[in-house]
Backbone:
């Protein structure tokens, strides 16, 4: 038998077998996704509350986290009423009580009077790597009512990152880790829904509608469950102490400033004035380190500083007891310059 | 062998390609495939289920391309581009040469940053220089210095692409240490005039400039926002994350890289023809016009020609021609074959990036509109300081020949003048008012023979924007026919449209006289029949005008789709009455004014003038062309007239601006000026 005839026979066999094999496997795949959905849907809750005017929807999503009717959802204006109702997957309706809400994580725990409900266990929640396929369960746009199951969306985890990876990009109290999704979950009513892997293991809770003030685009994201477990546990244990929403970053008492370094930046006239160095003071640390007028400051440490304002605020966060590493652009080259830490003065300033 | 097995299983059996098992693969692949396929599928599913295998293939693909995907930070530049707040966060780029060329989306640099920094996958940074931009495919080439061994991605061979196969979009914007991923399939090939691959992966500022890769991690293309009908950095951004995303094939990027590397931007090529309207997929491209100052004009193409071949390809439909032109750059040559009078003519053209807008030549007269017309055009009014005035032409003169060609009527003269060149001398034969030729007052070469016409020379200038202060009668008395269509206030039924539509035809209507038409487009919810008739009745009677006042549907609000209804109503008037096509104007207040723009832009064969009051421009402004004349009379405050006037003048249209307050419609004096403008729309 020649090589080519062998190849022909092989190809013929392959063609004959391929559709059957592919069909068999596709079916297996479908049924496993189908099983996942069937197993998750009974844990999803449709929540109704305040709103319904001026473009504010009066509904959101949530999911059961105990057999006794504890529901995890996002904290929002929808819950800002004495009359919250929760509709379970089977269409049964309950009055829900707001147990507690955490303004930083923007989460809330509701309670309905029921028993033996199907639910997620927060302590067995999984971790989703970037690129992995996920399902998002929510009542986006309030499509589902009564005993209609919530909507399921399919996508992948685009990346796992922190909301503050781009500082100032998103106006939200929560700055911690998130899953960025490529499914369009950023829609009215979706917030509070469940994010699971393809096996139905809980990964996160869908976040609120969030628009980037930097790229001006909407962000589809979910909060990882592990970020919420501690808070939810203390709520369930009745030990929750409300924290302030605006815990500010603690700034060092003796911080650097441009003046302290011996730098004068160009006048800050624009919203984002490029931080060019206008002048380097004679005898200053900046001069000694070799900074020059017309250098453009690009990084302080590992932080991009794209404007004069960013330079000011970044220096405010840097203690004078630490050296300052500046990366400047000079004639199309990046130059790294480190200014030494200041010896702490004996007498503290008042 | 293990890796081979994995490869065959995971890649070639994606659901989209089932059955197409490795037709061109080496022998051993086929053998392995057969062996594996002969195993019971149950067993296979138990070992490894399809979603998991796909997941692994996708992860591997991303891992493979990730080292070539860089993050880009920009510092400084504009805050807004095209009224859109620009992206200031990190964006993505793709390494295309080991020595530091990086391609990205032009959108990422729309703000013209002062400084660009590239952050590589290993965290190292380098300053980058913007080398050049391809403005047709919206790609930007960057260069970093001092690098020699950057990781260049593999190119996915375009001939392997199938609609339905996996495609993965990769960016590096959320976190410079990790790529961000969106998974989809190839939705279409050869999109946006043959420039791009379309995918349903989510494409947005978070991955513009990054690669679209196949399931093997080989790069298919570079992700960019694109729009089939708009240009500019922000065009197509409105489709972000919509499931409609585009990537310019990497093979093309590599082909144009040497051109971009020279530092010269690449611009979309333009031919300079307008096509007769028709079905773009079915009708052949017949030239309706050839723009002055264009390559098409230089190559001798003419209206009426049909393009039957372009770039070596037979052309059957309009869209095929668009593809051939749009995929080329300015400076590229295009070989065309046109059909003229049954003969094939071959022409070679060099496409250009810019065609000087057409400026309409102007003689400087208004023609009389007497019912009893003889040959030629009798001058009603001469614009002061116009070429006609300087040539000594006076009211009452009869213009008989232009550049040796007989003048039939005003319409004919307008067409003749439209084709003259500005600043180039032309001759006019005229007969003085009482019929006897006389010596022209200033310039001109008179003759003493009693019957010989007077010949004057003039140089056409750009069309005037001034409105005469006072106008003489346009015509004398005319005998009136007894058989008349309806006159006075008439309620029209426009075709199949159910909207109400009022018209006012002068009581003195005379079919022997030609009439102008004012299409009045009311502001949202502000239609007042009584007030309207009181305002326009005397004007219509005094100036041979017909008023047409279509009404918006129920809510009283106009939508762009209403253009069809208004056009139908207007056609009905032009069919039923003696209408002078040179004097049809769309006049609207606020949203009605926006519709007036739209009506004029979309039905150029119907509308000659646009007079919006306190309205912003709607629709896409067409190029100024000799065949389609459009004049503008903008009323309003600086805010409403400033921007449209600037844009229109950039396109070399004649624009008259009338300053009026922002809180009301025109007063009597302002309306009178508008009426004089309407009455001078037939200027030549």
Residues:
């Amino acid at each position: 038998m020649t090589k080519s005839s062998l190849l022909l026979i092989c190809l013929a066999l392959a063609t004959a077998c391929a559709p059957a094999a592919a069909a068999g496997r596709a079916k297996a795949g479908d049924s496993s996704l189908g099983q996942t959905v069937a197993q998750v849907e009974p844990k999803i809750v449709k929540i109704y509350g305040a709103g319904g005017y001026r473009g504010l929807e009066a509904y959101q999503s949530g999911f059961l986290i105990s057999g006794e009717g504890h529901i995890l959802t996002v904290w929002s204006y929808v819950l800002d009423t004495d009359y919250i109702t929760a509709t379970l997957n089977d269409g049964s309706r309950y009055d829900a009580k707001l147990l507690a809400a955490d303004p930083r994580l923007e989460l809330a725990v509701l309670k309905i009077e029921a028993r033996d409900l199907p639910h997620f266990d927060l302590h067995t929640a999984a971790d989703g790597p970037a690129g992995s396929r996920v399902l998002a369960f929510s009542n986006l746009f309030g499509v589902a009512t009564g005993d209609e199951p919530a909507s399921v969306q399919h996508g992948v985890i685009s990346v796992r990152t922190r909301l503050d990876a781009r500082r100032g990009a998103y106006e939200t109290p929560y700055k911690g880790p998130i899953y960025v999704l490529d499914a369009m979950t950023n829609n009215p009513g979706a917030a509070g829904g469940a994010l699971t892997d393809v096996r139905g293991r809980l990964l996160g809770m869908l976040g609120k509608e969030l628009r980037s003030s930097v790229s001006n685009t909407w962000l589809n994201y979910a909060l990882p469950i592990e970020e919420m477990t501690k808070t939810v546990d203390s709520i369930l244990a009745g030990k929750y102490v409300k924290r302030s929403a605006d815990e500010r970053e603690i700034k060092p008492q003796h911080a650097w400033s441009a003046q302290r370094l011996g730098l004068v930046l160009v006048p800050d006239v624009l919203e984002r004035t490029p931080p060019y160095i206008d002048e380097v003071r004679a005898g200053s640390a900046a001069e000694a380190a070799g900074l020059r007028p017309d250098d453009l400051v690009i990084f302080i440490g590992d932080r991009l500083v794209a404007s004069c304002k960013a330079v000011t605020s970044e220096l405010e966060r840097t203690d004078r007891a630490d050296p300052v590493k500046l990366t400047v652009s000079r004639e199309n080259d990046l130059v790294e310059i480190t200014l030494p830490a200041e010896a702490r003065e004996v007498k503290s300033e008042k | 062998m293990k890796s081979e097995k994995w490869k065959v299983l995971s890649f070639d059996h994606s659901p989209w390609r089932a059955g197409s098992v490795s037709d061109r693969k080496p022998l051993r692949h086929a053998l392995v495939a057969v062996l594996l396929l002969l195993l019971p599928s149950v067993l296979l599913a138990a070992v490894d289920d399809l979603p998991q295998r796909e997941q692994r293939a996708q992860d591997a693909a991303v891992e493979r391309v990730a080292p070539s995907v860089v993050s880009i930070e920009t510092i400084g530049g504009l805050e807004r581009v095209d009224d859109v707040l620009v992206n200031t966060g990190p964006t993505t780029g793709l390494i295309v040469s080991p020595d530091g060329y990086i391609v990205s989306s032009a959108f990422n640099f729309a703000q013209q940053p002062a400084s660009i920094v590239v952050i590589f996958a290993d965290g190292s940074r380098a300053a980058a220089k913007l080398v050049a931009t391809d403005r047709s495919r919206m790609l930007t080439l960057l260069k970093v210095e001092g690098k020699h061994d950057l990781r260049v991605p593999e190119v996915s061979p375009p001939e392997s692409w199938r609609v339905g196969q996996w495609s993965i979009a990769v960016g590096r914007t959320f976190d410079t240490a990790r790529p961000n991923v969106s998974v989809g399939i190839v939705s279409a090939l050869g999109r946006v005039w043959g420039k791009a691959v379309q995918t349903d992966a989510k494409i947005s500022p978070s991955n513009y400039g990054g690669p679209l890769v196949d399931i093997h991690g080989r790069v298919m293309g570079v992700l960019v926002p694109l729009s089939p009908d708009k240009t500019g950095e922000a065009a197509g951004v409105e489709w972000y994350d919509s499931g409609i995303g585009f990537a310019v094939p990497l093979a093309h990027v590599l082909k144009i890289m040497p051109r971009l590397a020279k530092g010269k931007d690449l611009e979309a090529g333009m031919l300079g023809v307008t096509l007769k309207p028709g079905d773009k997929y079915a009708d052949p491209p017949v030239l309706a016009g050839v723009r002055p100052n264009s390559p098409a004009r230089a190559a001798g193409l003419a209206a009426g020609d049909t393009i039957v071949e372009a770039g070596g390809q037979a052309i059957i439909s309009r869209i095929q021609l668009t593809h051939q032109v749009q995929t080329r750059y300015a400076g590229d040559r295009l070989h065309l074959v046109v059909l003229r009078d049954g003969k094939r003519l071959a022409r070679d053209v060099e496409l250009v990036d810019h065609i000087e807008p057409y400026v309409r030549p102007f003689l400087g007269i208004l023609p009389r509109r007497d019912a009893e017309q003889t040959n030629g055009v009798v001058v009603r009014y001469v614009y002061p300081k116009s070429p006609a005035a300087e040539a000594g032409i006076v009211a009452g003169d009869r213009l008989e020949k232009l550049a040796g060609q007989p003048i039939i009527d005003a319409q004919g003269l307008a067409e003749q003048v439209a084709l003259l060149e500005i600043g180039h001398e032309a001759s006019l034969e005229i007969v003085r008012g009482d019929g006897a030729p006389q010596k022209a007052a200033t310039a001109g070469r008179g003759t003493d023979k009693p019957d010989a016409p007077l010949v004057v020379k003039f140089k056409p200038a750009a069309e005037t924007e001034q409105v005469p202060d006072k106008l003489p009668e346009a015509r004398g008395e005319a005998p009136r026919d007894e058989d008349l269509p309806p006159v006075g206030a008439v309620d029209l039924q426009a075709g199949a449209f159910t909207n109400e539509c009022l018209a006012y035809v002068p009581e003195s209507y005379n079919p022997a006289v030609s009439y102008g038409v004012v299409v009045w487009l009311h502001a949202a919810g502000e239609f007042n029949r009584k007030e309207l008739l009181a305002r326009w009745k005397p004007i219509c009677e005094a100036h041979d005008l017909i008023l047409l006042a279509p009404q918006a549907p129920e809510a009283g609000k106009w939508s762009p789709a209403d253009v069809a209804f208004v056009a139908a109503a207007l056609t009905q008037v032009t069919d039923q009455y003696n209408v002078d096509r040179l004097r049809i104007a769309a006049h609207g207040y606020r949203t009605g004014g926006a519709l007036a723009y739209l009506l004029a832009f979309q039905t150029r064969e119907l509308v000659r003038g646009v007079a919006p009051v306190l309205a912003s421009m709607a629709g896409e402004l067409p190029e100024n062309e000799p065949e389609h004349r459009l004049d503008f009379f903008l009323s309003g405050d600086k805010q409403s007239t400033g921007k449209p006037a600037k844009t229109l003048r950039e396109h070399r249209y004649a624009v008259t601006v009338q300053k009026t307050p922002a809180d009301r419609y025109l007063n009597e004096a302002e309306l009178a000026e508008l009426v004089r403008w309407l009455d001078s729309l037939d200027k030549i």
